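Task: encode each sequence below as structure tokens.

Item 1
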Amino acid sequence: MTTGTDIHPDYLTGTWKLDPYHSELSFSVKHLMISKVKGTFGTFDVTIVTAEDPRESTIEATIDVSSVNTGVEARDNHLRSSDFFLIEEHPTMTFTSTGFDGDATTGEFTITGDLTLRGVTRPVTLNGEFGGIMNDGQGNVKAGATATAKINRLDFGVNWNSALEAGGVTLGDEVTITADIQVALQK
């Protein structure tokens, strides 16, 4: 738990912007009930404002869902269609934090927030680990963290599926989203 006196020793207040060259936003979903399909979003932005009281810090993220990349062009085009992301009507997915709690000793944290996908907003919880803060040698202060959330795609109107001849379905309902983020303190 974070308290006013229990703050990670590297903690700094300020506005932090995404370092896109050292960050990745990925997802995975069960496929054919036996394996997982993984992908990334190539274009996204994150702004973090760290407050004196860490529990009052905020995170805003915008993801360009058309930048989805699973390594298979036909699958990526299907994901962009009305069966999945419906990018013509909803080109972005957004996340806005509503709460933060962490453990200064372990660097583990929990962020609650609202995820909007296909025009549907639902609460989600990200569990993560703070990697620390470092000067990059060029005068830039960087921070890193990894966070993961599990969502049910059906909650966001992503209902497409196909029954398998042997039983079961093509896609699982649970999607794991992982953010490996590096941000830079703004001067």
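Item 2
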Amino acid sequence: MSRETLNWSVDAKGLKFAIVVARFNSAITEKLLEGAREALAKAGADGIEVFHVPGAFELPLAAKWLAHGGFSAIIALGAVIRGETPHFDFVAGEAARGLQQVALECNIPVAFGVLTTDTLEQAEARAGGQHGNKGYAAAMTAIEMARFGKPSGR
């Protein structure tokens, strides 16, 4: 299986972003937040507001509340790491479903920066480790989708 690397060339000037971060697994989610902030800063975002919620399950409701707050896009960051019970399946699935529902119902890009991994080591590898920083990638996705929905000249 080949791994495709996305080539980002986006401009966030004039765009405002909400970042919603789960506090559960904060050692991981704070690294995702660092990556998202770095991406937005490099792209020249005009506004960034960060909001914290208890866990990944709470991300969709927070995103819905923020959807009408004048943001160009919302970036949802979390880390759901498989444990010994099926709790993982419920939380990961409902977070993904809920965030997609917010995007579709509220007509705003909601970037999915929620890691769903089997181990802490896998999460660390995706929060600034050997697999990059998925918070950075989520922010770049948010910028691109915000631009796609409101391209200049239309």
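Check on item 2: The longest strand covers residues 73-81. The two ends are 39 Å apart (CA to CA).
End of task.
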